[in-house]
Write a structure and sequence with these properties.
Two copies of one chain form a homodimer. The first copy, chain A, is mainly α. Chain A has helices spanning 9-37, 41-52, 60-67, 71-84, 105-127, 132-150, and strands at residues 57-59, 87-91, 99-103. In chain A, helix 1 runs antiparallel to helix 5 (105-127) and helix 3 crosses helix 4.
DNA sequence: CCGAGTTATATGAACGTTCAAGCATCACCT
DNA sequence: AGGTGATGCTTGAACGTTCATATAACTCGG
């Protein structure tokens, strides 16, 4: 806990900036992916994470962890991606409870169709306005905040 | 549009950091406010924005704009806050279509009960890990990105 | 002042997320 | 082996957001 609960004027300004930025950015990315692929960004990230995993598959467990999403959310999401035919599920052999989420060929295909446009959006909105010093600073700062967040309380 | 669609390794790392950070932060704040007030952060922000406006009231129009939310979303949200008794609506005199969203006494009361805890959370998670140079850098960087975002495409 | 187009808001359905159970399997102790 | 608790995952209901549509009030040219 902090000694004073209030934010300084500067902190308040940054916080409002952050709120606006993250909403605008979120909306922008969301619409972009929705238009290109007809799925929300959260689902795109599932395809992306699976594509980088060995055998393009992950246990629901681990998938939820890399997404930092709840198991429930992950389960619902994978169920829907399964309907699209972009992911399929298989029981794991080692653990009878385990489910393996596997990126299908169609899912891979879809992903590589979408990815460049998505990357271009991210670049143009987040990185084009920044110079090298900015990105270095941003990396340092995000590292600090993330470390704090991941510490639990 | 950018010349190359791909992100550099550093940009990719920052982007992932940002995604994780914003999700963790969002979850943290959301649960915090949900626990304290039983409303989502988006609704808390409505109370906050109204509290700062003249007569603690704004036209739906302007409210949506300061929130950077759609009119539909704002309408649904205010409807629900009205059920809680924290906001009420009144037709505007000048423009027969206009609706004025007004923070009630109960809404104000609720807000000042919640605000300090909320500020403490923001401070502890976002600002405590940063030193003065960090916050200055962050202000500069967010300013740049926001300017870009607000430029439209 | 009449009608076409615009603006301000609301509404309902569809979708995604959260929350609280629920079920099956595993792990461990006896 | 058999029970007790933990783990992995799913399900359904409740809620918030989005999208398309509706409605009412304004504007402005004729």
């Amino acid at each position: 806990m902090a000694d004073s609960p209030w934010l300084s004027a500067e902190q308040q300004a940054i916080w409002r900036h952050y709120l606006n930025l993250s909403r605008l950015l979120q909306d922008r990315i969301e619409k972009d992916i929705q238009r290109e692929a007809g799925i929300p960004q959260a689902y795109y990230l599932i395809l992306a994470m699976l594509s980088e995993a060995p055998d393009r598959s992950l246990r629901m467990n681990q998938l939820a962890e890399v997404l930092r999403a709840s198991q429930s959310r992950t389960s619902h999401a994978v169920a829907r991606l399964e309907q699209h035919g972009w992911v399929r599920r298989e029981r794991t052999l080692q653990d009878g409870r385990g489910q393996l989420a596997i990126l299908t060929a169609a899912g891979w295909q879809r992903l590589i169709e979408i990815a460049p446009g998505h990357a271009a959006t991210v670049r143009s909105v987040m990185f084009d306005p920044l110079d090298e010093r900015d990105t270095a600073d941003l990396a340092r700062i995000y590292g600090k905040i993330l470390a704090q967040l991941e510490n639990g309380t």
